[in-house]
Amino acid sequence: MRINKFISESGICSRREADAWIEAGRVAINGRPATLGSKIEAGDEVTVDGKTVGPRKSVVYLALHKPVGITCTTEHSVADNIVDYVGYPERIFPVGRLDKDSEGLILLTNDGDIVNAILRAEHAHEKEYVVTVDRPVTDAFLEEMQQGVEILGTRTRPCQASRIAKNRFRVILTQGLNRQIRRMCEALGHRVTRLRRVRIMHIELGDLEPGEWRDLDEDEAHELLARCGRSPDGERP
Predict the structure, then answer these.
(1) 3-class secondary structure, 117
(2) In which band, very low, low, confident or very high, does the pLDDT at 155 lie, cut at 50, 70 and 90?
């Protein structure tokens, strides 16, 4: 097994983070510095910063209603970081981001191997939001949102958008550019006053109150793995 996969499956980080740790010289196999592409065999000892990395105890998939003001980072030095906020007894990390000023559904897991599969742009997984803005939502505004908006030097992918109320609309994206919805709205002359994510793929926020979290049920977890090309036992089919 490749060293980055072993580390990610131990639940301490994603494969990408493991690669960065390896390049930084923080990872060793049987006391010798690991390199990108190193492979391990049964009985090998893997350490990160001198601490042994072992098999993950159990896989955790959580759905959290992130409140406004919480930052999606694992850095404990950052005030109001999401990991300390949840206070889960095992090491977990968020899948992707949700702006500090935004609220709603975010997934947390100790399955580092699945993170990139969820976030990979070409998979085009849907994320659904309810957005309140400071001006009336017009048909022209919705049409422009759906066709794509020029932000960050690129044009956003076509998306689904529909009016809910005078100043509120629903939007379904298949990409995740930095502060994408806020930037799209600003480019069209609207300022977001509230942004709430209500769905990630097949997983819905439901009636979770801000600050509440729950374990994904068995069907949700199996579907998540299937959509990421994994079987329920964690192996690729």
Answers:
(1) helix
(2) very high
> Left (φ > 0), alpha (ψ -120 to 50) or beta: where does 134 sit?
alpha
Name the fold adopted by 3-52. 3.10.290
| Separation CA 68–CA 65 (nearest Å) | 10
Q: What is the 3-state secondary structure (H, E, C) of 175-188?
A: CCCCCHHHHHHHHC
The CATH architecture one would assign to domain 61-121+208-227 is: 2-Layer Sandwich (3.30)
For 37-54, write each residue's pLDDT tens digit: 899 887 788 999 998 887
Give the separation between CA 77 and CA 3, rounded to whole angstroms: 28
pTM of the model: 0.77
Identify the pLDDT of residue 233: 53
Q: Which of 19, 49, 99, 207 is catalytic?
A: 99
Question: Is 99 an active-site residue?
Answer: yes
pLDDT given at position 133: 98
The class of domain 126-200 in CATH terms is alpha beta
Q: List where CATH 3.10.290.10 sits in the chain.
A: 3-52
